Amino acid sequence: MGGPRIFWGEMRAEFRLLGDVEVRAGDRIEGRTEGRAVEIGHARQRVVLVALLADAGRVVTVDQLVSRVWGEDAPQRARGTLHSYLSRLRNALAPVGTGASPLTRRSGGYVLDVDPLTVDLHRFRHLLACARERGTDDTRAASLLEEALGLWRGEEPFAGLDTPWLATLRDSLTHERRTAELDLTDARLRLGHHAALLTDLALRTTAHPLDERLAGQYVLALFRSGRRADALAHLQRVRRTLAEELGVDPSPELAALQQRILRADEAPTSGLESASGDVRVSTLRVDTVHVAHLSVSEPAAPAIRPAQLPATVPDFTGRAALAEDLTDRLTSGVPVIAVAGIGGVGKTTLALHVAHAAGEAFPDGQLYVDLHGGSAAPAAPEAVLGTFLRSLGVTESAVPDGVEERAALYRSLSAGRPLLVLLDNARDAAQVRPLLPGAGGTALVTSRAQMGDLTAAHHVDLDVMGPQEALALFTRVVGEPRVAGEPARAEEVVAACGYLPLAIRIAASRMAVRKNWTVSGLAARLADERRRLDELRVGDLQVTATFELGYGQLEAEQARAFRLLGVVDGPDISLAAAAALLGRDPYATEDVIESLVDVSLLESMTPGRYRFHDLVRLFARSRAERDEQSRTERDAAVERLLDFYLATVSTVFAIERPGERTVDHLMRAPCEGLTFQGRDSALAWLFEEADCVLAAVLQAAGTDRFRLAADLLFAAKDLGDSGAHSAQFERAAHAVRDAARDSGDASAEARALIMLSHVQFLSGRFDQSDRSAREALPLAEECDDTLARSYALHTRSLVGNVQGRFDLAEEYHLLAVEAFRADGNRPSEASAYCNLAHVHVAQGRTESAIDLARRGLRIYLDLGHRMRVANARNVLARALTQAGRFDEALEEFAVSLDLFRETQQQLWEGTTHARMAETLLAADRPLDAVHHAEQALTLRAVGGEWMRARTLTALGRGLHVLGEPERARDCWRDALRIFEERGAKETAEVSALLDGRESP
């Protein structure tokens, strides 16, 4: 059907809506308008054009245009704006040299006076109508439908434009397109093209599992291709999917199709052709069943049925759900399944198990080849194809030369045959593509590489086993009796193996042949990371060997990145940190790291973050020790990473605490680190990187960079405050303190002691906190470390307050205020005021406590501190509670609570709930008090067990008032035990509650 010729003067034009909105003017070549693209303006102006073209050649009223362009959200001056758009469009569409334009104003509206067939939308619908005319033969119908579908230039019309009217029109056109695709398939099935349709239909049924018409077409194509079992299997899957998703049975037409296939009718029809609207009812008629024959000089002997699969392992364990899913996919006609994963993860074992389980679905046999993709000499596709052809009965003399000729013959011989091809240990998609069987065959591929470029494949990224699966495999090899007595140590063994099946099998096999070994002994042997890889070898099996295969294929830059990434102690690493470690820009770093992910030597669980499997990390580290030119290169890489963390964490500290001088006293990193848009993104980064930052501190403590480690801890003190990372923060502080003490660095030791004291105070170990602060003070004064000295004074004052030593607390608070003020550190000065307010609250000096808290709060508000503002409001609320101003106090607590949530300070959030409970009791609101006390116990609080005991005391008071005296006494007993263990001043109060000397 020739393309229309529409003229504007001497110009020809074409309007394209089925994709990006375009107008082209110029000469027509082979039915398409070539030449210049007409500039039609911005998105809203293009919507106006579509609104006119939808009724090309007909008047569209102004009201219709406004509705189509804006919907119900039309602005007040919509008509004026519309006229402006129309004027611009009129000029844009005027042909060169004539001044005329097809866009004109008519009574009541506007018309774009062009032949509708110059608009691809109308031409699409015109072609569909022609294809469905009665009497149109299938060949012509197929041609018309193909031409109609060929007009589409993308997945959706009017790409990038969005209004309610367009959305409705887009949905309608998308439905028409899907119906046209189904009509085309019906026509091609009637023409006997069933074999050529199989791959496309398999993909479409996967994408649209509830489309019964599509399902009927696929089933019919399978049956006519000689795959009756596959056709029936797919019908069963459709029945199951319809029941699970919609709760319905298949349509009568689909059920009838199943019965005809069961009776082995030679010419069944799908019975599901469209009969809606003006679309004619078509029947799938087939006069004979067509079978394609291949003519070669010496054809393959049809009786040969290859059965080349190696034996599956008899003790296959775990992965039951995955194995069942893959078996189902194999038997349902999925053309390619690609299983990727790290060496030793069990790809081959799984593939063989699944292939054997699905064996009956492939009566024409199974081909198998190990492609040696991880070796220095991977199998050549040409050689493999020669082997496959001979296995399929082609004589040696009839095997053609060249990979393309062999692949063509192989596809022809395998087309339409239920044949399974297992391509094991592939290097990449390029090696695999020539070895894929023809339509109707199925390939199962295993590889360390993730072959995303292997089209039409179902991809499986095989992970290590789960803990229970791993334990089951270990037990099955070793034997139940030897494991039963030491289940916990068996769990340690499989964890040390990183749940990697190969490592578990090796460890279990070693123990199985050594009757005097115990599970505990094996666990102890594997506990030493330095010897673990050496332990994981038995006979010719060794974990190191399988990793070495992948490592040996790396290019120089990949191998360097692999080694240096293995040197890092963190659980994972971000792209930015990796760029710093490698000394490369982020783009180059991403390229090399993603290439390691592609070959399964690295994992990427979330975009931009990467990690090693535990055993691969040990291997990478061993290669770094063996292959790096010198230790200097490894040390330089770690130093670059530490500098990056220090620079970025210091930036976060400065953003979160504007005006605080702490950062000025820290080492200055030689790099800039990351920048952030604001506080939220800065804090989000800090908490996301928490484990990595603290692991870096620990790693630095073991080198001569312990001074940097001390400063990195100081900058990351929010992690100590949070509760979620407090234990790891404390371990790092201990390590830095010990390293600095051994080296005689007084300043680094003092700073580490301050951070140790800080986290000990937060956990309620006040004696330890005071001892650490006391040790830090003379060290700080010895080396004139202003930062360490002021914080040591500050911490000692905090401890004195909670321990009831108020004179000492006030003395140190005033010294801390003086030290912070002398340093120009206004935020820390404000903190000292707030903490002094705590002392005054404890002493009953209510008005001065309110004044001090407000003084600190004003400073924080001026500087814009969120978390410190929350602290100040917390103190102010306590003072207001003491003054009996409960409503004001609760308002301050509520603001404080929101701020602590925003800054991810869980311990302070819990503390606020605990203090709110005390205020609510004083306000005679026991039910609300109980609620907040329980929240505090769930979240935990600053002060650890001491604060927990205070919260239990308040909870008991609330419960007693609410008429639950037994529960109240249980709370008080727990609180008394905690206070007595610590010699706390609150012991007497709780004792009096328990023996009735004090009223709740």
TrEMBL record:
It holds the Pfam family TPR_12. SUPFAM superfamilies: C-terminal effector domain of the bipartite response regulators, P-loop containing nucleoside triphosphate hydrolases, TPR-like. Keywords: DNA-binding, Transcription, Transcription regulation, Two-component regulatory system. Coiled coil: none annotated. PANTHER family: TRANSCRIPTIONAL REGULATOR REDD, TRANSCRIPTIONAL REGULATOR REDD-RELATED. Belongs to the AfsR/DnrI/RedD regulatory family. This is Transcriptional regulator AfsR. It comes from Streptomyces albiaxialis.
